Records
---
Amino acid sequence: MTEQFPALIVVAPLVAALLVPLTARLSLAVTYCLILVSLMVSLTGALSALRYSLVEGAWHYYFGGWPPPWGIEYVVDPLAGIITSLVGLFGILVFFYSIPFLAGKEPREKGYFYSLYLLLLAGLLGIVATGDVFNLYVFLEISSLAAYALIAFGGHQGVVAGFRYLLVGTAAGTLYLLGVGYTYAVTGSLNMADLGNLLASLQSSRPVILAVALIVTGLGIKMALFPLYGWLPDAYSLSPPGVAPLIAGVMGKVSAYALYRLLYFVFKPGGPVLQVLDVVGWLAAAGIIVGSVMAIAQKEFGRMLAYSSVSQMGYIALGIAIGNAAALTGTLLHIFSHAVAKGCLFMVAGNGSWWGRRKISEMAGMSKAMPLTSATLVVASLSMVGLPPTAGFFSKWYLLMGAVEKGSWIYAVILVISSLLTAIYFFRVLEHVYLKKDPGASLGTPAEEGRSLRGWELAPSMLVPTLLLGLGILALGLFNAPFVDGLLKFSLPWRTW
Amino acid sequence: MTAEFFLANRPLWGVLISMAAAGLILLNDRRPLIRESITMLAAAGKFIIVLSMLPEVLAGKLVETVPWTAAAGISLHFKADPLGLLFALLSSGLWIVTSVYNIGYMRAMRYGHETGYYAAFALCLSATMGIAFAANLLTFFIFYEILTIATYPLVIHARTDEAVAGGRKYLVYTLAAGQLLLLAIVGVQIMVPEAEFTPGGFLAGQAPPALLGVLFILFMAGVGVKSAIMPLHGWLPTAMVAPTPVSALLHAVAVVKAGAFGVLRVVGYVFGPELINSTASGKILVGFAAATIILASLRALAEDNLKRRLAYSTVGQLSYIVLGAGLATPLAFLGGIMHIVAHAFMKITLFFCAGAVYATAHKERVSEIGGTGKEMPVTMAAFLLGSLGIAGIPFFAGFVSKWNLGLGALEAGNIFVILVLIASALLSTGYLLPVAIQAFFGRSSGTHHGGEAKPSLLYPLVITACISIILGVFPNIGLKFYELALAAVQSVFGATSSIAMGGQ
Amino acid sequence: MDAIAGHLNYWLIAVLFVVGVYGLAFQDNLLKKLMALNVISVSTIAFFLNLGQKVGAKAPILPGGVKGGEAAAYANPLPHTLMLTAIVVGVATTGVGLAMIYRIFKHYHTLEESEILKGMRE
């Protein structure tokens, strides 16, 4: 059984996704057990593969026993291991978080929702675990389709947002596929490791340059690189609050991982890739500033967070563009710190919208009604601004070090300006939450009547994940040294020890 | 856990004890007595921990903790050296006095949400200890930022629109400064990885002068906001909207002195006095400081609100310390360091008095201060003593530091600075003495409630006033501030410098 | 001229791709946008299929008992299999898209994007 772990990471949620619509009609308890079991199996697989990869070296799993480059293989190296673990962990937390939001729906609907949820997770995990570029496309589309459908659960506005995301996202996937086509045309291989070897001598050939451009554009759309981020604000803010933390927290990061993997491990930084990285750097810098500026202009909390994500994904792209060890460490650390912080913030937004507080002005006085959520909001805001001792400070530190080491002072200045802009729109929210008077005793009624909360501000299945992620921000910050030395160091494209 | 472990890590315990106190206070939301006891215990405990390191540091040994790597290039490292210990003793000692004052003041004013207030206060002192004991730039920066965040809830405590606006301005200034400081630190870190504060500086020769100049500007902008160098001082008068104990300890002692302390650290322990003197940077710093002193003192003359007048006075007085750093001669440095101590005691006395007047007689304007001397003689007498000290009258603490600054200016051949010092003395006499004179001899305006300030407000200000005089006569008494300052100067400039025991 | 005539198939695929992109970006009707998306997919699929073709190649099927010959004599089957996957993905996407369009129409009673966006903001 344990030899199948790399496959189980993806297969377990996939099988469960197919079974859930059936079990949902029979028994809700069985369904929840099935979901939990599959997610636990997946997470266990991810963690043990990670441990294996740190001790023995990357775990290569050949599907059907076909060796590469003819067969499809899954490769779990430390980088893939940590990101699959992150996605798996998020899957479990957000699953618990989403339960109250579906409370009033029919079992059939719940079944479809969770089936899509598991498909989304399977797709994301597949993108990370796979060692084959076409397989990556397949899982990219699986996760995207599931995401489009999940976003469409968000009411009549969500359907439109989901459809427009479908159009853009599928176009992005097609661009990626075209890029894969060009690389296949010149090398005849689809295996990542094999491509890494074959492409080394073909760096400057025109098909390869075109392939790089297409792949970067396709994945760039998926990770909301400037100026291709238009789909993000609607998609993130109009998705159902139960699943928004997963979509906002993890989806963009997985696409960023894919870009990192392809640019540094398959195409290897050389002539044309370096020029592409330069362009990515300028676009990232523009996105950082534009995202923050747009966020300041927003009146709704969810949309503000969405534009903030555009800015923060720019940080990640900037690190990829700068490309030295410090900057890449910053990128990887930021993938984690932003996932945890943004996931936490969307949970806070969901908690607020549970009680009818969607606009920032409606969040006035939230600290009295929801003290724990507000405290978590403070921690997450500090992390987004990048103040010590939260995780956001340390990832910003690495990025700054990387930028200055390379001599790109302009990037360092942009990071600093962005921190100040971020402080503006987050502290404005904190002012409303802590300093303004609550306009009404309780705004709106919760979705489910008659739920006994025993004096707590929210149901535990919503509150506990929020608090756990909040604590995670602090833990990641305080313990980022062992995290970097023990895990992230091994995820860099070259040895630094 | 051996005794050695406890002893060696004392700087860390000094930082952590009030962090733990902050947490405990937050848990005791409904029990004011327990909240206040925790505060007093933490203050006493912190002072004892810091005091215990005094003999060793005076003997020339440094109390260091083991560096803890927080990230690549960031190690949290605490070290109690003379300058840091001086600042720590000052802050922790004054916290005890301020806590007594706090309890009395907050009970009188009844603002509400006191749990958060006391917790934030404790956290501020924790951050101040971190700044004092920081052994490298990163540790300094981390606690510098924590201080910014922890003081924000205190500034906006009154929750009025004015307070919120004041807090916003405070954050804009301090966060921007923090980011500039971060850029400078990253620049230094790239050039000299794992660099620690070294007496005499470590940046000489590490980079082309142009780059060093840019870094110096970034550093000064970063620490200059908290030390209220003009034109970066705008937040300080606006921050007077905070409750008076906040203004007293934080904006006369902890926050602003952290900035001035930062200036001293950067000049003495990062760039080094030789580097500063060999370029124009020292002279530019002196120029800004001198301009600040004069302009702030002039502005103070025009202020009617007593606390704002004191705020502008603080702006001017802080630049004495910056002046000492900029002149970069041994005596000037000594003067600057001593002024940290002297000004702290004198200004906190003045703020305590202002707060006592506000809490007891509900007066906040200089124009209405007439007659207060009859109702509150002890308070206004203390105010008079503090004023004399700020003006630099001999036998007050302020004289020792001014004298050394003057001698230092002579050492540097800078007559202009001496003129500035004299002018400033005259101006501060002009904006402070009339307040006391009005209080005693002026006509009473309106009814006066309450008589003399209550004991919890009165005793602290009497204590600090007396200390101001005692330190003027015996600068080295008790906590040996003078010896510590001397040791710091000797380590920065090398033991061969000749230092006269001015003022004794 | 030879650059075009020699690779006419690729140029036609490029034209198809551009037509699809034009439709996606500039058509206001959601259904037309979805159709344009399909056109883009088809052009990509055709591109891959063209990669596997060789001049004068036979279909890569071995009737029972016949031994295989040179690899160069057969067309490459791999792109075809990859494109089967891509076609399925396209079908699924179209299905999801149509379901969404149906939902949108039921609520907004129009499929013109500009009107829907106006209706959304209210």
---
Amino acid sequence: MLTLYDLYERSAMESIENKIKQIRYRMAKIAYETKRGHLSSAYSSLEIIFALYYMKVMRYKVDDLDWNERDRFILSKGHAGLALYCVLQDVGVLDINALNNFAGKMSDFSTHPVSNIKYGIEMSAGSLGHGMAFAIGHAYNAILENKDYRVYVLLGDGELQEGSNWEAFLLVSALKLNNITVIIDYNNRQIAGKVDNIVPLGDLSKKMESFGFETYEVDGHDVSALECILKKKDKKPIAVVAHTTKGKGLSFMEDLDNWHGRGLTEEEWSKAKQELGNGE
Amino acid sequence: MINTFEKAFSELFKDNENIVLIVPDDDKLYSSSRRYVNVGIAECNAIGMAAGLASCGKIPFVKGGGSFLAHRSNEFIRDDVSMQNRNVKIIATGAGIAINALGNTQHMTEDMSSLRAMPNMVIVTPATPTEVALAVPKIAEINKPVYMRIGRHEGIDVYDHNNLTFEIGKGQMIKEGWDVTIITTGTILSDVLQVIPRLEENNIHVEVINMHTIKPIDEDMIIQSGEKTGKILTIEEHSVIGGLKSAVAEVLADRGSAVKLYGMGLQDCFAKGYGTYKEIKETNGLGQEDIYETVKNIVNKVEEF
């Protein structure tokens, strides 16, 4: 029998699912109108970013984005920028009109985010393999200043083919940076196809464990599960292998080739509107 | 010069809580402080971490072999430091061919070329130990990325520092003359100054400028001296492509100057040979005899029009 609490939880989750659907709709609309953005990659990361900002995982102040004690979110897989922007709109960091001219002539918002703390964006991304070392700087600053903020880094699975990540993983352990949570968006896709068919990652969790991380695996589209894991703290740095689907949310995009970095056609937009409930 | 750097830096490090020293396994100094971090043999880590710290308001110094910092971590410098104008100081040791016996991989002979094009970047190559000591607090003061190249050898104070001020971005008139302007960067200045008595004996009176800051470069001094002597010879322990000679050429071209420009340095090649510092300079056309002969030829040359 369902208790009142269960019903409350269910209704809260339904409302979150609906909110995420609305964000997906807004993202699709932008990708259709501007023909820009890496929609499929951004869909893959959406719940992860949403959980960080929306589910009170991260501590931040909308009216003081440069707050020294804030938790940091470093989007290393910059091609998920559209997801970050749309979540930032949802939590009130970005104005609802901020993306009207997304990646347009004089827009402040590029497809790959550009570091600008007044918009809550910590790092310029776009070249993969940069976020980890940058995150180490932020995490080490917390140690120097005796602050208890946490640094969250989102990496792509294909991104792990960049050796700089592994250098940085070694250093995270060496410096005992237990204030870092690394999230790997493991959709098993990169531009040319399946990560497994290009340079496979093998047993990624074991690899992360051997690099000194307390490691969790999670369904990267399950907001409650993400919330629960991302709120964890440990004596060790944390790695979260988030199993995701590239293009999540649109039947004609999910886990399919040729979707990296392109907008939607008229016909695709029509279908997307239907599948995303017209943004309502 | 590294010893001088360490001494000057120690003072700064002691006085300023915001300064952090990051080394890719470079030395064992300051190991008791949390503001000293050895990130291991990983230059990209060093630069990326420094960028993160700088964005938190720290003033990170990254000190290590310049050939690795400038080239291995080049894209980290570009994307995470230069692009955001972040306050990271890169102390690149082994300027030019100062790491004489270890081969080309250790040489800093294209570093200025690749970093000079990076927006916001300040590039300094002190010529003497005292200049290193003077430069350290000054580069810490400016809220910009700085790449400072320092020699591996101790170097000598070849000019009287009491008579000249050291300002980032300002050249120094070491000696006035009228036959040709010699512009140097780094410790090769000492070789030039040692050749001067012989040149004077031959009635050749050179003007010598120490261009310790390659970027921003002292345009006015180049133009004023060049217009006076009509000829400029740049001397650098670096490729003649993209470094001092190129920087001077850009100034002359931008100002529409017809001053004749000559450049000594590596002529689109890596340095040849090993041996002592003196020997490797001689093997690569940067010995004192080479400087003497080149200056004499330039001054005695009848220009063809």
---
Amino acid sequence: MISQSLTLTWRSLVPLKNSPGQLLAMLIQPVFMIVIFVYLFGGAAGGDRAEAVQYMLPGVLVQVALMATIGTGMNLATDIGNGVFDRFRTMPIARMAPLAGRILADLCTMTVTLAMAVLVGYLVGFRVTTSPLEALAGLGLVLLFTMALSWASAWIGVIAKSVTAMQGISTAVLLPLTFGSSAFIPATDLPGWLTAWMSVNPVSHLAAALRGFTVGGLDAADVWITLGWTAALLAVFVPLALRAYNRRVR
Amino acid sequence: MDYAIEAEGLVKRYGDKAALDGVDLGARAGTVLGVLGPNGAGKTTAVRILATLQRPDAGRARVHGHDVAERPAEVRKLIGLTGQYASVDEKLTGVQNLMMMGRLLGMNRSSARARATELLERFGLTEAGGRAASGYSGGMRRRLDLAVSLVSRPSVLFLDEPTTGLDPHARSELWEVVRELVADEVTVLLTTQYLEEADQLADDILLIDSGRVAASGTPDQLKAMAGGHRLDIRPLRAEDEEKAMAILGSGELSIPIHDLAMAPAVLRKLDEAGIVLAEHALRLPSLDDVFLTLTGARA
């Protein structure tokens, strides 16, 4: 099953080599995100820009990673729509391999994208003030949570009637999760209901953990809450996605 | 007789509409079974059930004795499927598509590559093998699709409308490949809307319409079901056509011949009326006639 998953991971990564344009588009996205958030919003907040960068960059990294999970479901919906998965399903291979292969591939591209985002972050003045090891731990946590969320995206991708529907549903779910969190702004001076939502939102804890790992002030609770959500997402969405995939009728 | 594919009483419903309403079929090992029917007749549903993609609501089906619903893993080791919509990975090259299948089936890198090279050559794709499949023509894509489903050397192959949308040249190329497969003892179940295709390739034909079997048999048996011989004529002068139809007592320039002595008598009558014929032919009905007689539908 592992070698089948890896073959399918390879399958999903090869097109990036075949068409470098797609790879470039993927790498440029975080650049825009950083420019928009740091210069546009960071400037509008009126505070010190160097301070804004230190607060916002971890938030932007989380945002970039989470929005990219939509791609997992969209790619799956595309594969199902054009019949590639029908062939896999008539072959003597593990049922999990096509889904796991896609998610692993997306994790690989995500790693590259995050590295790119950190690099751009450095160019605009972001500095890791902890240790490189801690920073890597923070990025690892982001990848772990992203991988779990990818299974939710995979589930939606399998049950969605079309690629467009998949994109619509995922965006509707992800926008309140990412923007309705303390990823970009601290939860102070906001209406009470919003503060309440932000404090339960797992993305707030993930962003806070990454911030702690990179610029200091880590609260272990944020890490544990994020790991808890990761486990919960996996426990719910891995079986759901596999079941939906096995039953999927085009 | 040794059947590679057999099914009894297959039923599949979508909501209250029955896509299959009790279909029996059997494909003898090493032959081509043509499943012929208009759009929406249930052909694709039947293939999807036999290829383990869907479970039937009722009925049983077996591939080389393995029940498709109970033992899908066994069935999957024996079958190949080429769908109505070519399901190659467009972003991969021809070689990559074939190698991916080989690797998934547990071949090591070098044997997967060898198999890919062999199949590309066999399907005339060697030159195109390094290009992404998205740039292939319709015929090339279908050939690659077929090649991909042959990587595992299946003993049973399902071809779901393999030539729909192909030009005549690409179609006859694909027919040639199917004939070669059968020569290699592969059992083929082929669905098609084209009567000519079934006539050309199939050893046995199953005619289905609205989820039911309308007729089955060899192409010749089916043709015999549509009635006996027909006489077709074509007057040399177009203005004679109506007069000729009046003599035939028919609304078209063709009549059924129930007694073979009748044909010369009809031709004599036309001659006496001064109608010169450019063409006349006594023929057995075509599968078209069978199709129209049995389904009342246009192919």
---
Amino acid sequence: MVNKQKDPVLFDSTSAILESISDGVFTVDLDWRVTSFNRAAEEITGIPRKEALGRLCSEVFKSSMCEAECALQRTLKCGKPVINKSGYIIDSEGDRIPVSVSTAVLRDGKGSVIGGAETFRDLSEIAALRQELEGRFRMGDLISHSPAMRPVFDLLPALAASSTTVLIQGETGTGKELLARAIHGMSPNSKKPFIAVNCGALPDTLLESELFGYKKGAFTGAIQDKPGRFALAGDGTLFLDEIGEISPALQVRLLRVLQEHVYEPLGATRSEKTNARILVATNRDLATMVKKGEFRQDLYYRINVISLELPPLRKRKEDIPLLVEHFVERFNRIQKKNVTGFTPGAYSLLMAHDWPGNVRELENVVERAFVLCTSKWATPVHLPAELTGSRPGFAETGDIHSAKRVMEEQSIHGALKHNNFNRAAAARELGIHKTTLYRKMKVLGLPLPEQNGRTTPRA
Amino acid sequence: MRAVFTIWNDRIAPVFDVAGQAILIESENGSALSEFRMALPGGTVMEKVAFLAEARTDMLICGAISRPARLAANACYIEVYSFIAGNVREVIRACLEGRLRESAFAMPGCGCKQGCHGRAGRGGGRTG
């Protein structure tokens, strides 16, 4: 480029090289106007060279970095190149294309800065490959490589293809709505609406009008027709969360919709038809509720055509690193941070915790660590007290030995608790001999519980 | 009519998904009644769309926009004029005069394709 006027042969060969490489290359002048745009740049961006030349680079490149993190601006400001900075560009169809960019200062023959050069690489294929590799563990936003989740993943494609009602059960925070969204997302109606309703969040009368809608004049204040969630779902999916919370009267109306696919909006004189697929979820034991007469048996059988059980996080702890990695990636993107991950000490504590709030609790813990973390690695000091066992001394040092100690303490305590303080059973759960358990408890200074699994607890 | 123009350096911001500033113009019969400058939320693109919906935006005039963001805006009854480029004052004037579709305001590569440089209609049932 520098000698292009002096040496036409060099200019020709440089142009030929630029035209033949697969990386996009463009150059700008000091007013940020595009001065050259190679063939690969045309292909990746979908913009013909003649339209790009002379235009502002930000309006040609349309990258996530242009406004606040322009690599070229940084290079021209400090004179140093930027290598492989990741971001995305948006093409004319609205697709985000992942790219990595590198930049350099452009100088003339006398060494004066005349602009900048940017090369960029389309990472779509790498992103697709990565997704394919992760595909074994991911469906929609559900992520797992735990055998405990395998039955759920195995059933998903078949469930998605059918229109059967599915009952999703699991503790709070296990991802019941994510599973419902995954079923919808993989279904032939994925382009149709997905409407979620939390039945436990609304009083009965409001839930009724919310689900079925109402007609003008149905009650005071009903000044116009309002479509309900069944109508909004159309041919898509209606997800009814916390189904165990609905009243007996509403259970009857819901049963009719599930059986006959028709319903009457409040104040309507005619029935309306629904083609929406129904997915329901609960964290309550519906079978027990049926026995107690709290939930209609006929509705239970109607919604329990196929039931999926989402295991709690404590039963799939091997998923914790995968989920943490996923959340780290997401919060880096959302909070525009560059946290690499959690230190081994912090990981030990994450693995040792019982996670009563399941994946949602883990997500909150990672988010909290992101707020507090100002370096590349989140350490135990960034974790809440319930994970560190409220040991400020440990939390401040955060070294691996302290983490190991806390993890062992929590594991032993957890195993004893699970096994009703039967030490032999706790040792079996921990995979160690009973005498090793005694020795460890002694070393860690853990008192022998008064209750031992054979005796009854004292009042 | 409430129209929001995403801005950067006195021009329409190149990418809506990461835009940080906007101007809200309230107009009637082609005349601007009021103008506010506002910061857009820095989180996800859905947060930006929710913010615009909260501000009762009728029309969004922006640069490049990702498809999910456009669909979300349409679902909030926001009419989107995307892939617009140019000096913000000239774009506002063109908008008030109904000249937004002029090729002078098209981003490079966005001259003619559907959904690009121009209107993407509202998703909801509201009219007007």
